[in-house]
């Protein structure tokens, strides 16, 4: 007689919970969506009494599996609810492709808030920042000014690089702005005499040696900054500056004059 494989059995308690998840009332569902078994949660998604508040509570859990989150994404309630789409993006275990699909549907400052959400993963933050940056060209000036004050270093850096007069000073005051980003701006094509002067007179940035040198090596820098900065430079730095091919004739003359004063 051939051996027969035993039929898989379901634990009696789990079977009861699975059945209850399908038929529970709206009130009972709030308790059921805290069940540790993903099978029970999947059944709860099929319950006819399930509504938006149940899904919001479910998405606060940080132990949900990818398959369950995919099921939530395809649920009819999510298609109708902006709040649920936002809650799904906020869950750190939501699969990346789903996050990328939802981000364009979120409001600009919802994206900004996501960047500072506790527990956000580096990949999620990168995707959110990229979504914000992609919107910058079509974002009105008032909102770009708010972004310059509130956004992350990456977003503020992108705003600064545009070189818009109304935005540069705000970006410079953002505590998240990095020195390397200002260096890139000073060395880029969008810096002007006016915006270079904003950096040169800014209380936080004007004393940074690397920024001073970048300012002096920009041929668009007004002569006044050579008058103010050159005396504080080391002779070796002045020689290095003089060797730069980026100086305009007047800048070169001012630099040679400072070197001559030192009898070098």
**Structural class determined from secondary elements:** mainly alpha
Helix content: 55-70%
Mean pLDDT: 94
Strand content: under 5%
Q: Please provide the count of β strands.
A: 0
Q: What's the end-to-end separation, in Å?
A: 106 Å
- Helix/strand order, N-terminal first: HHHHHHHHHHHHHHHHHHH
- If you compute it from the alpha carbons, what radius of gyration comes out, rounded to the nearest whole angstrom? 29 Å
Q: Count of DSSP helices?
A: 19
Approximate shape: rod-shaped
Low-confidence parts lasting 5 or more residues at pLDDT below 50?
none
User: Major sheet, described briefly?
Assistant: none
What this model shows, in words?
- This protein has 264 residues and is mostly helical.
- Among the domains are: 28-106; 180-264, no CATH class.
- Helix content is 62%, strand content 0%.
- The protein is rod-shaped, with a radius of gyration of 29 Å.
Give a nutshell description of this structure:
By secondary structure, this protein is an all-alpha fold. The chain has 19 helices and no strands. The longest helix is centred in the middle third of the chain and has 14 residues, at 122-135.
Structural descriptors:
264 residues, mainly alpha, 62% helix, 0% strand
What's the SSE blueprint?
Layout: H1 12-23, H2 26-32, H3 38-44, H4 52-58, H5 66-73, H6 76-80, H7 82-90, H8 96-102, H9 108-115, H10 122-135, H11 141-150, H12 153-161, H13 165-173, H14 179-186, H15 193-200, H16 209-216, H17 223-229, H18 235-243, H19 249-261
Helix pairs in contact: 1-3, 9-10, 10-12, 11-12, 11-13, 12-13, 13-15, 14-16, 18-19
